[in-house]
Amino acid sequence: MSSILFNVVVQGILTGLVYGLMALGLSVIFGVVRVVNFAHGEFAVIAMYAAYLLFSALRLDPLIAMLPIALGFFGIGYALQRLLINPFIGRPAHEQFILLVGVAIIIVNGLLMIFGPDARPTNLSYAFDSFAIGPLFIDKVRTYAAIAALAVTGLLFAFFRYTHTGTAIRACADNLVGAAVVGLDVKRLYALTFGIGLACVGAAGTLMVTIADATPALGPAYTLLAFTIVIIGGLGSMAGALIGGILIGVSEACAGFLITPSMKSMFSFALLIAVLAFRPEGLLGKRT
Amino acid sequence: MTDKNHMTLSRRGLLAGTAAAATLISAPGIVRAQAKTLKIGVLLPRSGYLAQSGQACHRGATISTKVLAGYGHSVELVHVDTESSADIARTQAERLINEGAQCLVGPFDSAAALSIAQVCEQRQVPFVINIAAAPQITEQGYKYLVRNFPTGGQLVTNGLNLIKDLLAATKVAPKSAVFLHANDTFGSAQRKAMDAIFPKAQMPFQLAESIAYDPKAQDLSVEVTKIRALNPDLVLVVTRAADAIKLVRDMVRQRFEPKGIISPGSPGLYDEEFYQALGPFADFHTYNLPWANPKAQMTQALEAAFKPAHPSNRFAVDCFNVGFTFEALLIAADGFKRAGTANGPDLMKAIKETNLADHVMIGGPIKFDEKGQNNGIISAVVQNRGRTPTVVLPQASATMAPVMPMPPWQGRT
Amino acid sequence: MHGRVLIAMLLAALIATPAFADRYVISVLILVFYFAYVGQAWNLMMGFTGQLSLGHSLYVGLGAYVAAGLWLHAGIGPWLGVFAAIAVAAAVGSVTGWLSWRFGIEGVYFALLTIAFAEFTRIGFDHIDMLGAAGGLFLPVNAEEAGQWWNLRGGPLLFYYLALALVAGATLAVAWLRRSRLGYQWVAVREDSEAARALGVDVFRAKMIAMLISSGMTAVGGVFYAFYHRNLFPGQVFEMGRSIELILAPIVGGLGTVFGPIIGAFILTPLGEALIAATERSGFNAPGTKAVFYGAALIAIIYLVPSGVWPWIARRLGFSEHRQ
Asked: Contact A105/C46, CB-based, under 8 Å?
């Protein structure tokens, strides 16, 4: 029994890391641009379709397709920020909310029009394989996806830490007026950040196709998931998003295994409520 | 001044309103012009969370005019998308009737069915339900409603009996089973039926546990691990397509091989995406459902019309949704022919007296009880073979013999 | 002054509408009124007090389930049940409010907390067998009760006038509240809660009262919903999509205004219906088309008139009502 529980926890951690990467994009955007991307999950689903198309046309493994898709999403994010979202910076949250709800509705239904309601599977050759370690069975896809998620997070971390642009973006987040005073092009940095945030979603969505099959209806569920994770980990905190992802992954796995699967998401929301009540800034967030 | 104005206006308004109330209440008796063609409003959830099934039903509706014409029925269909919303189903039902629909067909969903039923009841327009399993729909006393679809309880009763037949036919004697179901409207109706029926059904195996999962959850590996820990011989499932894929994938990954994966009466194991995602692992899953009778002449006519109209879909995969949608339209058209009028009460009377021996789905003639329920719908055992749903029992309709226990995952191609 | 004349005329027109409108229009107007009503309730929280709730479907659902459950299990009619519904929703609302504001949760965090409460409750209700769990709760429609308006059994006109009365009542109440001492406290809290506190406003109390009134009012909408549709499913009533649906009207109409929610509902619901008809007529009606246009319309509206349509109209007509 205990080995099975251990198995469940490991699976939870692996899935949680991919969720965490998805949430990371949301966190980065909010931390800097102060816009809550209510169409976040929907963008992840676009990435899933992109990965599906690249795989079925070019047999490109999602682990590789992740790079071009992330790059493309960076471009989309940059353009979106410049053209659509920029006028809404600093405006009340509900106006941004309506704007992005509109975007989300268009994405969900646009995908429905183009691809239809049926799921589009990406049939990887190793989709059904698992590593057998003693009594444990660990899926290959989840393992690879989790490693990739960690790698992307590491890259992002290094970018914010060690590059000039990354430091400038962090300066914007910490002190907007100061950043403008020292001559940083805030608009450009915001667009860059939105691009980076979407690149994260792009990468996460691409990895997601190894775990789930693309359907238009997934979007809202992913948005909600990303929110839950980010709030638990701390909005704006990068490490927090990963920790939040793992926590959600493990708590859902354990609740599902030990109590009843149909109530497992209830525990995520209970966790969220508890975190908000006792540590509103999130586990690793800074008080703003 | 303003107050006075307001008072008079509103008093007049109220009077007008009362007059309108009287007309609205007595309105349904209007005699409609005799026509040769029946105008039917088809309400289906072609977008929103039920889009997948709604669109499959829609594929059936679009070919029905032609097929029905072949049987001497003349119908005109108006297609409306309910967007999986009961609010929209209700306003659109009103609009369809306003625009001359003499009968409504749909809506794949229990919530929308009850919203439309209220409109139809008030306007005395017959409503033929193609698919909706909540038992309460025909227990509400609606007079303008018939349902040519089994209730959740009937599905499970038929499904469990067929499992006995399946075990007898394959001479397999499993000792235990686990029941896994989505905790949604359909899944929980099936769970209730299972809880009530299983103890009395004298099944030759034990039900070790019933597990509900949240259909909105993104991951089913824990559920599979839980089942693996119980190690049952059979896994009984009530799932949706996307969940079924995840379920089987995780079973293969965790190298868990029950003797059979059987649905006692639910969709999920035979969608096109299920075959595409799982390939060889999609085979040998079994589901006990009402099914199109491959040997019936009308089924063959329907299939012949389906192929050119929907070249990228397979009739064998869609035939559950397509068949029931077609039959609902057939019931309306047949009633119209016998009534000779589209006048609501007369048409409804004729529909209630339906007795159709020739139809698409396996089973006896289509008939309705006084509540509007067709109690004669039987299920068949259908098994995925070569990535195609194949009727394996009852023998009269079967095109292949059932296989159980299922072959191991390893070595499948 | 001529504003009042206009309102009286509008009300009179709506009262008289069933005399010449067909049943389809009536059914759409019932939806319009429903969204206008719950929009008013939500607007108290967000428009006046500045607390963004994205989980108001929680109170709709609680109201609906409490009244339906009492009717089904205890035979208590909706006119009595509505008080229980208000009480339960207000109690849950006060727990949400207390948890949030005692711990200083504001803005986006508050919004997400409200979502969490609604989702938590949705899954919870999926497991309450007495209320039908995920299988749904059905109110019987037996013929003996037909026309018993006191049990909310009746045709579209009953629900039309009931919904109209709800909107009118809510609008009067909101207009009165806005001019009350409490209303000014709310606006002060919305604009700058620190300054409000410095001026001696009990910020926590003001917010809690807004929450109590808003959740209680929303629950009444839920009772209406339950007896209008006569079936309830947790997955549909508590869903996040429902929460979003009900906040669109007040935002589009004009947040923090008395008429915004009404104008918004009169724009959005008919817009959706018109798009259905338009896509159907044009033949360009692949599933999803209508929703894509609807989404685009939302973006266009918030882009062009970010503070809402009603303030924009009001300015042009020379009315003074704008966001205080």
From this structure: no
Strand bridging mode A130-133 / A136-139: antiparallel
Domain contains A236: yes
**With bands split at pLDDT 50, 70 and 90, how would you rate the model's confidence at B32?**
very low
| pLDDT at residue C32 greater than cutoff 50 | yes
Asked whether residue B160 is assigned to any structural domain, the reply reads: yes
ipTM above 0.85, yes or no: yes
Q: What does C289-308 look like in DSSP terms, one character per residue?
A: HHHHHHHHHHHHHHHH-TT-
Mutate to test the interface with B, among C1, C4, C7, C15 (most CBs of B within 10 A): C15
**Is residue A125 one of the residues assigned to a domain?**
no
Q: Which residues, listed in sequence order, are joined to residue B80 by a DSSP beta bridge? A: B43
Per CB-CB distance under 8 Å, the chain C contacts of A95 are 251, 302, 306
Question: B246 and B131 in one domain?
Answer: no
C294 touches chain A (CB under 8 A): yes
The domain tally of chain A equals 1
Domain boundaries, position C69: 23-239
Percent of chain A with pLDDT over 90: 48
- Residue stretches of chain A with pLDDT short of 50: 288
Chain A from 221 to 260: CB within 8 A of any B CB: 221-222, 225, 252-253, 256-257, 260
The pLDDT of residue A200: 93
pLDDT at C1 over 60: no
Decide: B328 and B73 in contact? Cβ < 8 Å. Answer: no
Alpha carbons A120 and A42: distance in angstroms, whole number: 16
- Residue B320, domain extent: 38-150+294-352
Whether C292 has its CB under 8 Å from any CB of chain B: the answer is: no
On whether both B248 and B384 belong to a single domain, the answer is yes
Contact A276 C111 (CB under 8 A): no
pLDDT class of B26 with cuts at 50, 70, 90: very low
B272-319 pLDDT tens trace? 999 999 999 999 999 999 999 988 999 999 999 999 999 999 999 999
Residue of C nearest to B181 (CA): C134
Q: Do A227 and C115 touch (CB under 8 A)?
A: yes
pLDDT category of residue C252 using cuts at 50, 70 and 90: very high
Residue B95: C-alpha distances to residues B89, B90, B346, C270 (Å): 10, 9, 22, 13
Task: Read off the pTM.
Answer: 0.90
Q: How far is B331 from chain C (nearest CA, A)?
A: 25
Number of structural domains, chain B? Answer: 2
